[in-house]
Each structure stands twice: as C-alpha cells, then as structure tokens.
Amino acid sequence: MRQSKLFTKTSKETPKDEVSTNAQLLIRAGFVDKLMAGVYSYLPLGLRVLTKIQNIVREEMNNIGGQEILMPALHPKDLYDKTGRWDKIDVLFKMEGVGDKIYALGSTHEEVVTPLVQKFVKSHKDLPLSVYQIQDKFRNEPRAKSGLLRGREFNMKDMYSFHKDEADFLDYYEKSKVAYLNIFKRCGLDAIIAEADGGSFTDKLTHEFQVFTENGEDIIFSCNNCHTHRNAEIVKDKQCETCGGDLEKNKAIEVGNIFPLESRFSDSFKFTYLNKEGKAQPILMGCYGIGPSRVMGAVVEINHDDNGIIWPESIAPYSVHLISLCSESGDIKKADELYDSLTSQGVEVLYDDRVEVRAGQKFADSDLIGIPQRLVISPKTLVGDSIEVRDRETGEETIVKIKDYVQ
Ligand code: ATP
Ligand code: MG
C-alpha cells in the first residue's frame, strides 16, 4: 500500500474525548475513528488488524471442529420471552418496528442459535456439534470510556456447542481452553485462565481469559502457592479456596470467556435428542466468547511506548514499513523497485512514498503506526546499495544490502 494513497492521516493531537491509551493511539495513528462513545469505524489499517485477529480466531475454532455461520443481529422479542431474558439482560438494546413488532439488537445469540440448531439435531447421531460466528454485538454498556475495550457496538466471536452428556461436554470444554490459549498467544497476549462465577447463566464456574495490565477493568486474585486465578467478584476470603495459600491482587482485561450452559437454553426451547433407545434426553450446551475488537485494544494497551503502538508481527497491519527519503527520480525508481519486489514476494508493505513530507515526520508516523520492521531507503543508503533496517520494538538498527534483503 502506498501511503500517499492512504486516505487516513495521522494526528499529533490526542483526542480530547478519549481517556484510554488504546483509543488515543489507535485514533491518532488512523486505525479507527470514533462515531460516538463506544462505537468506532475501522479504517484501512485498523480493519487489517481486526481481520488478522478474526482469522486467527477462525483457524483455531475450525481446528476444534467449529462450523462457521452468520446469524442475524436483529432479534424478535418472542425468543426472549421463551428464555425469560427480555428484562434480565440489562444491556439489551430494544426497539420498535412497523406493525407493533418489537426487536432487540443481539448482545449474545443463545436465543437465536438454540432454535436454529434444534431444526437440524434430532438424534444422538447428530451430536456433538459446535457452531460459531464472528459478528458485531450491541450492548448498552453504562460506561463506554475504554475505547475498543468496552464498545456499545463491538466485534465478537461467539461459539455454541451441543452435547449428549456431561462427559462429552467437558471434553469439548477442555479443548476450547487450549484453542483459546493458542489464540491469545498467537495474538501476542499472555493470557491466564481465571475462574469466575457464572452469574445468571449457571451455578457452575465459568472460565475467563485474562491478560494482566494496570489498565484493566477486572481484578484478579492469584494464588502464590497453587497458581490458580479467580475473578475478584467471587473471592470471599483473603486465602486461596483451593489450597489456603496467599492471594495476590492484580488488574486485568478479560479477553475471552467460556461458560457451561448445561440445559438452561435447550430446556427453554424444549430441545432434546433421541438416545439409542429412542428416549428423549436433555441437550447440554456450552458457549464461548472472544472479542476480537477488545483483543485489538488490549494489545495496544500492553504493547506501546511513548512514540506509539508496537504491533506483534502476527496481527500487524503490515509487516514492513518502507520509508523512502528519495527525491531524485533515479532514487525514487530504486525505492519503487524495492517496494515492487517485496510485494511480489508476498511481503506486506506499507510504502511511505510521500514526497512532500519531511523525514522526521515520516519516522514519527512510523513509530506511531507501529509496524514491526522499518526500512529506510535514502540517497545516503543507496550509495552502498543498502537500506537501513530498524526493529520497532528494540530500536535495533542494521544496514543491509538491498540484494541480501530482497533475495
Ligand atoms: P465484561 O465482563 O467485560 O463486561 P462480559 O463477561 O459481559 O464482559 P461476555 O458476554 O463473556 O462478556 O463476552 C465475551 C467476550 O466478548 C468478552 O470476553 C470480551 O472479550 C468481549 N466483550 C464483551 N463485552 C464487550 C464490550 N462491551 N466491548 C468489547 N468487547 C466486549
Ligand atoms: Mg465475560
């Protein structure tokens, strides 16, 4: 991508109405734009990051047998009447349509997925099954001040699994934990699993995937002895419930959450299956959420310095930021050739080919945008047919022959 063609621009000004680091940096660097509190547009650079996160999530969900679908975001009220959740989900956006119809905007999809899967699953032979989608969710969050960490419209991957018995459910639940840890690791996040209360969903414990950072909204208690973690909301004692060890308190961001739903929703829809003996049995469900947009915000909260964002390679908008300081047509031609050969090799390059912008501004933009590797091509480096290679994270710089870099 030629930066001269990129319609977004960076900004030196910190947006006045944003208090969170992730929103300030992502807006200044031109990844997202704020429409209103908790609602953002994804611009070309930001959409590339979000798509990469979604694709990592997609791969790991497919790996554990998840089948991707896309369900409507607009839901009829009668489904919530069946589950009794119309007035229980406090963040539900509700609205009226033509002919006295009443709708909700999806904040989660149990009401839609359960009767959907019910149409296809009749016997034990149809189980187990898991389906997922990647879609925007809507929640009327009372506080939406944390940028991408807490949106009123935000992106979520939600998966739902269906099982014939507890053992089968547990087997899948454990597989999902591994897949989730893979996802966060691949996105450059060091997530831990914390136990949490299931709230209105279930009597059982649910599991949250948390990344420690001072800027997190959650409080996690970690046991120094048995190394288990628990969400503060359920911690009653100062001692670990498992082993009696001392607890340490830290702030964290919840990036994922998995729940055993038991037959809470299948019962509401009278969704059962026929076992081998032809007898109707309850269906057990699990649900599994990750917020790709929150993951993007969390990565920025954790990986930045005074100059800007530091993207992990796996989700960076581009892997190389090629900066040309060339002004003579012969030199510009060499910079263009380098860009062409890198892109033809499949390297994702953002090419700062802007002629009217000073070097200092280009470097500042590059640090702000945070692409892992910066290449500088200039009349100076071209004397040795070389480029300067700089690592965004470490700041380490080396001079490399163009022919060695391109190969
Ligand atoms: P929180 O406790 O932070 O409000 P939650 O427990 O209500 O979140 P879940 O229903 O478990 O959220 O949603 C699954 C995942 O979706 C969360 O782990 C998080 O990654 C993401 N998520 C939830 N709410 C938001 C939001 N308002 N903005 C961005 N991402 C969100
Ligand atoms: Mg949660």
Describe the structure.
This protein is α+β, with helices and mostly antiparallel strands and 407 residues long. It folds into 2 domains: 229 residues, Bira Bifunctional Protein, Domain 2 (BirA Bifunctional Protein, domain 2); 86 residues, Rossmann fold (3-Layer(aba) Sandwich), CATH 3.40.50.800. Helix content is 29%, strand content 30%. The protein contains 11 helices and 23 strands. The strands form 6 sheets. A 5-stranded mixed β-barrel has the order 9-10-13-11-12. The longest helix is centred in the middle third of the chain and has 21 residues. The radius of gyration is 25 Å and the shape is elongated. The mean pLDDT is 96. It binds adenosine-5'-triphosphate and magnesium ion. Adenosine-5'-triphosphate binds next to strand 8, strand 13, strand 16 and helix 7.
**Radius of gyration computed on alpha carbons:** 25 Å
Bound molecules: adenosine-5'-triphosphate, magnesium ion
Number of helices: 11
Return the CATH architecture of the largest domain. Answer: 2-Layer Sandwich
The helix/strand class is alpha+beta
InterPro entries: aa-tRNA-synt_IIb, aa-tRNA-synth_II, aa-tRNA-synth_II/BPL/LPL, Anticodon-bd, Anticodon-bd_dom_sf, Pro-tRNA-ligase_IIa, Pro-tRNA_synthetase, ProRS_anticodon_short
Enzyme class: ligase
GO biological process, one term: prolyl-tRNA aminoacylation
Keywords: Aminoacyl-tRNA synthetase, ATP-binding, Ligase, Nucleotide-binding, Protein biosynthesis
